[in-house]
Amino acid sequence: MSKTKFLSPGALPQWLSELAAKATVYAPRREGRAVVYRPHIEGEAPELALRPTESAKHVLFPRAEALFSFTKQGEAEKSGRRLEVQEPAEPGPAVIFGALSCDARGFLSFDPVYEGSGTDGEARDPYYLKRREKTALVVRACKRPLSTCFCHWVSGGPASGQGADVLATEIEGGFFLQAFTERGDALLDAPSLAEATAEQRAEADKAHCAADKAMGEIPDLGPAQESLLDLFDSAEFWRDRSAHCLSCGACTYLCPTCYCFNITDESSGLAGVRLRSWDNCMSPQFTLEASGHNPRPGKSARLRNRVGHKFSYYPKIHGGRFSCCGCGRCIKSCPSSVDIRKIVLDAIKEVGHV
Ligand code: SF4
Ligand code: SF4
Q: Does the beta carbon of 155 lie inside 6 Å of ligand 1?
């Protein structure tokens, strides 16, 4: 059976120090009106009362990262100029502390893509995978959902341990900690933590049940895949749903399951760097081709692609799993109140699957 421990609030700084002695610890921090994951600073209390505004995906998939740097060697006039390539430093061990259950599940959507699923491993992405392998997730169970949460629609739940190494549940006087992996066991092997009692486990189970109950009814999303395909050519449906979209991209940048990127070479003189940066399919530039042609020039086509990808095309090639963990960030942060839940349910209804 996996390890369980008890963490008192007074012992939290010490546990974080113990974790930080072996790994870079990322924890939620308040920055202005936002709560973001940043490297933990000794003596600073993590922000655990509020939901993180952003997901933790940038820890494994940075907003911009150098895939390698290069230097051109030799005389400019000589045709056989050599290119020297420097690989980036190997990532070190890391711990994401205080992630939400949905955020941990978000990485499960990244994994098959970056493992090169369906390509016999030819398209494996070593940059993501090395970080993934070295990063542990300490997830906190949600006590009560926000009105925008729908993790339970997409096979998750407020206290889901899927994708987590350790699940932390707030109970009377502290946190009940439960490991789900060997790496989680190792994280709980810390002097600051006390043994958990059977009563504390029972209290955590009760908290999980209460949180599950607060989530409400689960609609049948089974027909979503086909419904969205059926509506692919329905210009009216997508025009209505995207009418208020500003193409700002907040939904994609904050989404724990959006994994698209762009590659650029930036150089100055004889040296340069190949950068990978987050891309945003809600922007008209996303599909703009060098010829000037744009297959998705309008926002309705872009919204159709975003929703279709998450609830139809991705599940079709990844065993039915939606590329959405139900975190609700795209709903909460959209300046125009575009609600992906409503679009999916409308699509199912529109083609008469309910
Ligand atoms: S956050 Fe809302 S307004 Fe901005 S691109 Fe996404 S759907 Fe459009
Ligand atoms: S699509 Fe929206 S609800 Fe789904 S994972 Fe992305 S941000 Fe969260």
A: no
